[in-house]
Batch of 4 targets.
Target 1
Amino acid sequence: MTTRRTVDQDAIALFDEFTHGTMSRRSFMERLAGLAGGAAAAAALVPFLQNNYAEAAVVAEDDDRLAAETATFEVGGTAVSGYLARPKDGGKHPAVLVIHENRGLNPHIKDVARRMALEGFLTFAPDALSPVGGTPEDPDRARDMIYDLDADENLARFAAAVSFLAKHPASTGKIGAVGFCWGGGMVNQLAAAGTVLAAGVPYYGRQLPAEDVPKITAPLCLQYAGLDERINEGIDAYVSALEANGKPFEIHVYEGVNHAFNNDTNEARYDKAAADLAWGRTVAFLKKFLEG
């Protein structure tokens, strides 16, 4: 990463509201200007608040330890594509579904898939927007497209992605999932969707309503950011429902860090210490349930 800069927490909260709602970029910039003290100051803040995908390649696209390609499967006559990465050893591996944020399948998520593949997993990052033309370059447009998806159809496609991985010739048949933000919420949903999912790791994802918790069939490793008031308001009810229904889970809250603390392309919110700790816990959790 480049040199870190401290960004006012109100600006981070405003950006979170913008990225997870229907606020227009014009309205966001007007409100940011009010916080920053003017339009010029607001414009200077934007690069620190938004993702910079030039920082994405922790693992190079052409890393010679990996094989990576675009893969496609069909569900209900609809083609769904994504990014498939695996160790280049010709063997079978447990598999992990990597589910993107509400900005679609971008270079950062592809890099996360490669990182997971280097941990010894067959890894697939589906593009939820592939049935409607694919993730656009404009992240604001991607956000709008995500929220236009039919929720039931979208869940069915991710459930089919689990089956796709389970049947892949390079898979052992043991499948886990890790997701971030919108993708974290999808991991929670998948755990209760009646798939063969064997483990799920939702990062700062929207929780399931209590009435859906009895349907959960996969152990969960819940990862939350201490400053993430929007998502964290649902933690207590979720934990209570998981405990009441005897569902196996572990929970980690990283104090003093923001929503999206794992995203190392976002200078304002990335926290290396929390991200590294969470990643270690994620890999250990997945190996515990997928390698046995």
Target 2
Amino acid sequence: MMHAEQIQEIGASLHRALAARQPLDPLTTQWPALTIEDAYRIQLAMVQHRIAAGERVVGKKIGVTSKVVMDMLDVRQPDFGHLLSGMVYPDGAAIAVDTLIAPKAEGEIAFVLKEDLQGPGVTNADVLRATACVLPCFEIVDSRIRDWKIRIQDTVADNASSGVFVLGDAAVDPRDIDLGTVGMTLEKNGEVVATGAGAAALGHPANAVAWLANTLGRLGIGLKKGEVILSGSLAAMMPVRAGDHLRISLGGIGSAGVRFV
């Protein structure tokens, strides 16, 4: 286990990389013995810098929920990161690519909680009961690790490669639809470039939220009423650049759009 001073030092370096938009060499290359537990401690240190600068935590994101990403990182468990107030964009927003390092877009289903969720023991049904609504969402992931050369420890430490996110303006009660069979179509510059389904997120998006609640519960942390939870990508990450316009459509829920300038 890393010393507390080293954890703080690496967290500060990741925050500097975020602020300056200058990537770092992989942490797992610089510190080969870095564990996932160390990485989560670094993540908290990085997030604390953002809070100290005036941001607040507005929710959580779940990553590594699809088989393709698990295979890429050679892990068989998801990870999580914190969503902060400075990450939120409205539907149709224009995002300047030079505010990020190497952005990639993911289409997801976002949950907004109407009740606290405290694990362990949280079930899929508990998640649905505690959810006020679900919305279409773009998560724009980004990496402070150079060229996305990441292992699981790298992305965890880097706040699960969080960038920014865009919430659509359509909200539905999750009990009115089968989220596991919801189909997603992702268009880039008017052409369909990816399709997916709710089941891509751990078999059902509510399963991903339950995993998060139970994982955090073992650490004595709960999910709070009003928090936004991003349940994981329903298709592969899509690299973006200035001039791109993306839209996702989720069957039975709605759509969301984002453009890059």
Target 3
Amino acid sequence: MPLNRRVDRPIILGIVGDSAAGKTTLTAGIANILGPERVVTICTDDYHRYSREERAKNGISALDPRGNYIDILEQHIKQLRDGHPILKPIYNHHHGTLDAPDYIVPKEYVILEGLLGYSTRAMRDCYDVKVYLEPVEDLRVKWKIQRDTGKRGYTEAQVRESLKRREHDSADFIRPQRTFADIVVQFYPPAGQSDETGANLNARHTLRPTLPHPDLSPVLDLGVRNGLKLELSRDIDGKPVDVLDIAGDIDAKRAKAMEELLWGLIPEAQHLRDKLGQFIDEHNETAISHPLALSQLFITYHMVKAAMGVHAI
């Protein structure tokens, strides 16, 4: 833990986004940095109320709060924040069934990732850091097809039909949660490279003033040629935000400079260093993305600062 940790309860990070937005990949990297002995990760999609077969019969999708035990999820997040164990349900994504629950004891850091983590005020009030993932839609579709055909036994036609069937629920229940995030992360292909789905994707961070973000000026002095750009902008709601763009083709030296800057801002966590930016590519092989690595480290910075009492609620 940070050497001068001042918060004596678990630090709670939320990562919310639509299906196949990259939540699990982002979460895994942050958990690796923090260390398995210090962090527990929870998928809030385990709180589905119905099995896949039941959803097919009743027409309520997994994106609809009515199809989830939202009240129990609220209770569990509060219990974790207070340092108490929970009996977490398990949704088997391969079989679409509800399995036996899992006994979870909170650790120094708790990461909750899933579809509906910010859907109520009671849940939102429990997080120290809130992240929303919104890859451009064409990219999310490709990621979902890759995941669901490769890991969950679906055909591409079934995945596309599911996406079409869920579109209204995505618009009604998932995307509105974006407004509650401290950081919005968007991965998108570089210009002229619409087929890119992995290591060379750009990352755009919309940084809201709800958190005190780090001073990145030491690595931004040379402008966009560095592969990094920070500028004041307006969010989709018209409110002022900082926007940090990380180019997919950022060179390793420049990416390393930003990593070192962030590590230097959290010297209390130097022992947490580990490999960053790992993901499974379309060939089912492990690859490295610098924008993903920097995104993971940037969010970890906020978690460590929260533990130090800088902006914990």
Target 4
Amino acid sequence: MKAPKALFPGDLISIIAPAKSIDVSFIEYSKALIEKRGYRVLLSNHCLGAYNYYSGTDKERLLDFQEALNNPDVQAILCARGGYGSVRIFDELDWNEFAQNPKWVLGFSDITVFHHLINSIGVQSIHSSMPLNFKDNTPEALDTLFSAMNGSLFKVNVAPTKRNITGSAKGVLVGGNLSIIYSLLSSKYCYDFTNKILFIEDLCEQYYHVDRMMYALKQAGVLKKLKGLIVGGMTDMKDTEVSFGMDIYDIILSHVEGLSIPVCFDFPCGHIDDNRAMIVGSEAFLLVTDLNVELSYV
């Protein structure tokens, strides 16, 4: 996997809005924060636009992303927010110039579709927080975002949960939003899960929806290919009126039973304030013990 060039102070970061529209206050706050870190910021033409649910029409959002991909002065592309809409444009983009001269693409949630496509052409990307969330993010979440972009080595250490499965694993890190991973399972952009460490997160899903998605991963042969599983924020999950009878831990553990891989829960990534950066496509090492969980890059 090819890693884009590390960023240095003075480099240009383009903020685009490939999905849902975003209020100007979030962009202003994030622009100031990025500039304080020493980088320059370029807002795409429709970053602050609005067209129904989206920041612009499909064509407008497509043009904004394409301009950022093709602009030789732009060293990183930061997606403003998720929501919905990326899947409507991602495979209409021309990635040829990007493949030859890759740059970091950052975001999470709906942006997971871009991580899939970028991974399929052999380039790393960064699953990270976005301007919509910068105001509420922990310092660690923002620090790892910039560390990932500038090539600084970092580790994520967190306290274990009682439901973890201990062990260690080395493999390429892939993942993102579980609903997006599920939706792309039969597509040409589906991750190759062989010997990978998979991380998943999601928001506002019914318990039985998660069970359905995990069944799909199992039936597609995904789970038995993995070296390890990281479960991030499963935020605001919902039970049915007649209880499903299992929580997120029970559901996921029932699907990985017997696989003999390390599994950790409550990892700091996803729709939570402490949304640490995850480098998709990078070699990583996962260690899960009764005392600690550590993810590092090798």
